[in-house]
Amino acid sequence: MSVYSKLLDESDDPYYECYYIARCYAKMEDYQNTYIYLRKSFEYDIYYYYDEYKSDGVFKDFFADKKYGKMMEDLEAE
């Protein structure tokens, strides 16, 4: 079992699982998967979004990307 899988298995909060996975994808500049996991995290708790993601520098380039920045704006508006 990889260290990454072990860490996820130890998490008892699906919101934070999505958050950590999204952070990893953002660091790898894989914005498609970053978006997928950010969107999935909304299913668990949209209120953390504003505190966690908007202030997390890891997502700066993701939100600056025209395509994904727009997709996030649309998702926020729902």
How many individual domains?
1
Structural class estimated from helices and strands: mainly alpha
Distance between the termini: 38 Å
What radius of gyration results from the CA coordinates?
12 Å
The H/E string reads HHHHHH
User: Quaternary arrangement of the chains shown?
Assistant: single chain
The biggest sheet, with number of strands, parallel, antiparallel or mixed sense and barrel status, is:
none
Low-confidence stretches: none
Q: So what's the overall shape?
A: globular
Q: Treating each run of at least 4 consecutive H or I residues as one helix, how many helices?
A: 6
Report mean pLDDT, rounded to a whole number.
80
Strand fraction equals under 5%
Approximate helicity band: over 70%
Number of strands: 0
Topology (elements, then pairings):
Layout: H1 3-10, H2 14-27, H3 31-44, H4 47-52, H5 60-64, H6 66-77
Helix pairs in contact: 2-3, 3-6
